[in-house]
Amino acid sequence: MNLKSVQMVLVGASLFAMAGLAQANATHDSFIDVAGSVSFDGWNQLNRNRLDADGNADPLTSAQLAAGTAGNVAGSGDALLTLLSGSYYPAGAGLYGSNNALTFTDNTIASDISSIAFQGIINDFDGSFGGTPFSLTLSYNGGDQDIAGTLVNFVDTGTAADYYYYTWDLSGISTPISSYTLNFDIGFSQSLAFQVDQVAAVPEPETYAMLLLGLGAIGFAARRRSKFN
User: Fold this and answer.
1) Contacts (Cβ under 8 Å, ≥6 apart) of 157
2) pLDDT tens, 210-219?
3) Which stretches of 30-187 are DSSP H helices?
4) Which candidate, 91, 90, 113, 133, places its Cα nearest to that of 179?
5) Is 48:92 a contact under the CB 8 Å cutoff?
6) How many other C-beta atoms are found inside a 10 Å radius of the C-beta of residue 145?
7) What does the pLDDT look like over 100-145, one tens digit per residue?
8) What's the predicted TM-score (pTM) here?
9) Deepest in the core among 6, 103, 140, 173, taking most CB within 10 A?
10) Under a CB-based contact definition with an 8 Å cutoff, are residues 120 and 150 in contact?
11) Which of 85, 92, 94 is nearest to 120 (CA)?
């Protein structure tokens, strides 16, 4: 491999690594860009007044929820949000109802994921007023593992548009993961938006330092070569 080819490989590798730090977010203003996201699924405007990308009416229906509805945010994968039971229905502002069981299921998994991240705008009226709060657990490969997530952030808006951010660390699972399901159980509530990200391990700062050092060394060698030619 000649010098120019090596330069191109290193530049490409560094750009790819930096691009993998975040997945551009268009699901909700409150949602963050998740570092290391390699695939995401976003559901927004979870209501009967939903519009498509061109501003045309595209209402979410109860039948779509029951059958399983794919993300409606540009760039989403093929995960499905499915209402298994309960009275959730697309109201004027979001999904509204009681005693709901939903799943987020994805059968297309990146080979290098190390975690799953969930963000939601959820007004949990039961939890806010002393009742049982909602639960969100993960299973994988069609199993019944029921792994609880870690609550990374919660923003209490007084049940106007409460923000939740959960993660699941998958790095200790030795079995290759071919699918996952997030199991969501919630009582009296209103949900406005969801996003689930598949997250790859974020390169350590030392990785970038080595890439930059390598690029610098190659640049120095190229200058020396041109000087003596």
Assistant:
1) 163
2) 555 655 556 5
3) 62-67, 125-128
4) 113
5) yes
6) 13
7) 999 999 999 998 899 999 999 999 999 999 999 999 999 999 999 9
8) 0.80
9) 140
10) no
11) 94
